[in-house]
Amino acid sequence: MTTFFTELKRGTAASHTALEATYPFSTMMKPAVFDRQAYTQNLLILASFHNCVSNFIQNIENSELLSEFIDTDAVMQAISHDLIALGRQPDFPDFPLISSAESPEHALAGAYVWMGSSMGARILYRWLNHAGYEDFPTAYYQQMIALGQRWPEFVEHGLDYVQQHKLDVDACIDIANQLFDGLQVCANTLSHQKHHPA
Ligand code: HEM
């Protein structure tokens, strides 16, 4: 059964790689191109993603088994805190609508991408603090690191959820990839605005 999560990871690996290659994610850990604007845009995109998942997951029946791990209020508060500290209102871009997000597969895929993003958070937080960006606000990354510590427990509960709802792994992979695509669309919208201000 652990292969369910192995399959999810395998099925979304290409989307993850593509996202990492997209501005502003592509500037992370690259001092020559990383700056305050890239950091701010990164947080705006993530705010849009977290807002979307947090909205749909709470409307999916019996998803508490998963949503207890993602701590939506704390994550949204942390990200707003950081954006305000960076001088931005948390006026994040709209996340592209994903097909009616009501199934248990949506809950699992949303929680998976949310919890999975804590892995990059740990690395990025360490880098920010050792590469001269100590003055950047990092409440969001600290919050994600805290969530990430519960990853093994999340997987265990996730597998129970998979069994209870007889989830289809390919449907979950599809939805997780739609979320990664949404992150890309948000990233492209913001960088388009950067080059062509309204
Ligand atoms: C530049 C930004 C990012 C970096 C450097 C990064 C880095 C990483 C790393 C190192 C891993 C662990 C890979 C492994 O164990 O083999 C990972 C996994 C993952 N990341 Fe990212 N990541 C970034 C952005 C994101 C974003 C924005 C999201 C989604 C919002 C995300 C979602 C995931 C997911 C779902 C996994 C897979 C978890 C698993 O199944 O084990 N990542 N990331």
From TrEMBL:
InterPro entries linked to this entry: Haem_Oase-like_multi-hlx (IPR016084)
Superkingdom of the source species: Bacteria
Stated name of the protein: Biliverdin-producing heme oxygenase
